[in-house]
Write a structure and sequence with these properties.
Layout: H1 6-26, H2 32-46, H3 54-87, E1 88-91, E2 94-97, H4 102-120, H5 124-134, H6 140-147, H7 151-170
Antiparallel strand pairs: 1-2
Length: about 170
C-alpha cells in the first residue's frame, strides 16, 4: 500500500480549516462545499509533485481557486447582463420577455397549422390571391394587375378565403 503524499495529508488534516477559510473570505452565500471539493481534486492531481511546505501550498491553492471562482462569477454576471440588455426589455426592475411563453408558442403553432390546412382546401387561384395579399402585402389593385383579373374578383376571392378560414379555424 502506498503512503499518502504530504500534500494530501495536509489537506485531510485541514479540510475543516479550508471550509472556514472559504466561509470567512466569501461569506455564507458562497458554494463552500464545492470549493472544498474542487480543492481536493487539485490536491489529488498534484499529490505526486514535490512540495516544500504543504500547508502554505494548500492555502495558496485555495486562494487561487477562490480567485478563479470570483473571476468566473464576474464574467458570468457581465455576460448575463449583456445578454439581458440585448435580448430583453425591462419595465422598471422587472424583465419582460420578448418571446412568447412555451404554451403560447404551441397554441400559435397549432393555429397556424389549422390555417395552412384550411388554405390548402381552397382552389389554387384563391390560395394564390390570398397569399399575395396577406403574406406578400400586395394591394387588391396590384394583385389584379399582376394576374390580369378585375379588382372586384380579387375582393371576392379574399372575402371567400377569409370566410372559409373563419369557418374552419375560428369556429
Amino acid at each position: 500500500m502506498q503512503s499518502q503524499s504530504p500534500l494530501l495529508a495536509s489537506y485531510l488534516e485541514r479540510r475543516d480549516d479550508m471550509r472556514r477559510f472559504f466561509l470567512a473570505k466569501l461569506g455564507p452565500a458562497a458554494d463552500v462545499e464545492d470549493l472544498v471539493q474542487d480543492l481536493y481534486l487539485k490536491v489529488i492531481a498534484l499529490q505526486d509533485e514535490p512540495v516544500n511546505n504543504p500547508p502554505a501550498f494548500l492555502y495558496r491553492l485555495a486562494s487561487n481557486l477562490m480567485l478563479d471562482r470570483l473571476r468566473q462569477r464576474r464574467r458570468a454576471g457581465a455576460r448575463d447582463a449583456d445578454w439581458r440588455s440585448t435580448n430583453q426589455t425591462s419595465v422598471g426592475t422587472v424583465d419582460v420577455a420578448d418571446a412568447p411563453d412555451a404554451e403560447s408558442a404551441v397554441i400559435a403553432r397549432q393555429r397556424l397549422d389549422k390555417v395552412m390546412a384550411a388554405l390548402a382546401t381552397l382552389s389554387p387561384r384563391t390560395q394564390q390571391i390570398f397569399k399575395l395579399h396577406k403574406i406578400d402585402g400586395l394591394s387588391y389593385a396590384q394583385i389584379a394587375g399582376a394576374l390580369g383579373i378585375s379588382k372586384s374578383l380579387v375582393e371576392k376571392q379574399i372575402s371567400l378565403a377569409l370566410g372559409h378560414l373563419h369557418s374552419r379555424v375560428i369556429r
